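[audit] Reproducing an earlier prediction to check determinism. Same input, same settings, fresh worker. If the C-alpha cells differ from the archived copy the diff job will pick it up downstream; this log only records the rerun itself.
[audit] input (465 residues):
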Amino acid sequence: MTVRLIILIIIVAILMSASLAAHAVDAIAKLEMTPVEERAGDNGRIIRVVKHKAVAGMDSPGYVAAGQEYHVSVGIPATYKAGDTKKIPAILVLHGFGDTWQAIVSFANFYPELFVIVPNDPLGTWYYGYSDQLPGGDPNKGMVVNYTERRLLAYLDHFQKEYPIDANRIYVAGGSMGGTGATSLALRYPKIFAGADAKKGATNRIHCKWLNQCSTIWGNVDAKVTNNDGENVWDWQNMAWFASKHHQDATWLRTAHGREDVSIPYRQVAGPPGVQPMSFYDALETFKIGHQCLWDQSSHSKRPPTPFTHDDWWDAFTDATCYLALDKSFPAFTKFSANGNPGTGAGDAVGTDNDLGDNTYDGDKDGGFNRFLRWNTTTIVDEPATYAIDLKLSSGANGYKGAGERVDVTPRRLQKFAIKPGSSFAWKTSTGQTGEAKADAESLLTLPAVKVTAAWTTLTVTPKK
C-alpha cells in the first residue's frame, strides 16, 4: 500500500467521522412522544399535551438512566383542519422558573393564529443545558452541554413533520427564565428563529439573583467550566459577549425590562458599570442587531406605579404589514434620535419586588430604543442590484407625535441584494435625501441618519458606479 493511499484512507476516515459528528443531533432527535391529554382551548383551539422520556444526547447519562420525563403542549389554531397543507407560522412559548407542565398548558392559547409549542423545562436550565455530571455529580467538573437547546430544536423538527408549520416563520417568546431563553435562542439560532420577544429575561447571569442556582447546573464562575462549544460557559451566558462573537446573521428581538426588578435586575441589560465586554444594550447597537428595547418602573411581578405606554403596540410575528420571516429582509435600526437614556444600571435591585420607588438609578425612568419605528415587509425590493424598503414612525393614539427623526438603517437577512466587504453604495429616499455608504468588513451596510416621519418613506440602495 502506497503512502499516498494510506493518507487518502486516513482523510476519508476523518471526513466520515466529522460527518457523523455533524449529524449527531439529527440522530438523537427521534423522540418517542406519548399522548397525555387533549382539551378544548380558547376561541375554538385544540390543545394537545404529549410527553417523552429523556433521550441520550439531549440529556446527561444520569437523567437518561433515571427516566427523566418531559411534557410539551401544542396549541392548534381553530383554522387548521387535519390534512390541511397551507403553511402556518409557529412560536415557542417559554415559561418562567419553577413552573410545572400542568401550570403552563394554558400558554398554548397565546397567539391564536399560530401553532403554539409550550415545552417544559423542569430542571430549570434556563433553556440552555447543564453539566454532564448531573444528577448527583460535581458540576465544577466535566462539561456543560446544551441539552435543553437540543431538545427544543428536536421539538420543532418533530412538530414540523406533524403539522404544516411555516419554517420561515418560527418565533420564540417568553418571560423571566423564558425571556432568558427567548433571547439566547434568538441570538444562537438566527437561521431558525425569525424573531423573538423576551420579557424581563437575564442577559448576564453573573449579575443576577440567580447566580447560586445557575452555579448548581453550570459550575461556579471561578471554575470556568467549558461547554460543548469549547467556551467558558459563563461567557456563553453573557449575551453581550456572545453577540460580540456571533452577530453576522443576527435575527430581530424585542426586550422589555423593569427598573425595579430585584429578581432579574435592570443592570442585566443596561450595565452594570464596567461590565465586560459591554452592556447588552451597547452590544445590540454596536453590532447592529435588529432590536426594540423597552423599560419602565415595574418590578419583576408588579406593574409600574404610573402606567407607561411605550408605543402603538404591534406584533412583529402576526402583523399583516410589518412582520418577520426568514425569507424576508428586515432593517436593524441604530442611533435612533428619539431613543431614551437607559442609564448605566447603577442603583437598581434595591429592597424587594414589592418595594417600588426605592431605587436610585440613573437615566430615564421609562423609555426605550427604536420605539415607533416600522417597516413594510410586503413591499421590500431585495434584488441583486437594488434594495428598497418603506419606513415610517407609528402614528396612532400611543404613537409618535413629533415632526420626524433620524435613524441609521442596516438591511439585515438579505436574500439577493449583493454586498461585498468595502463595496460602495448610493442611497436615496422618496423625500429627496441622498447619501453614500461603504460596507464594513463583515458585509454589513449601514445608511446613516435616514429621515423618518409618520408618513411612509421609501429608502432605495444601489451599488455605486
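[audit] rerun output stored. Observation attached for the diff report: The first strand starts at residue 34 and ends at 40.
[audit] end
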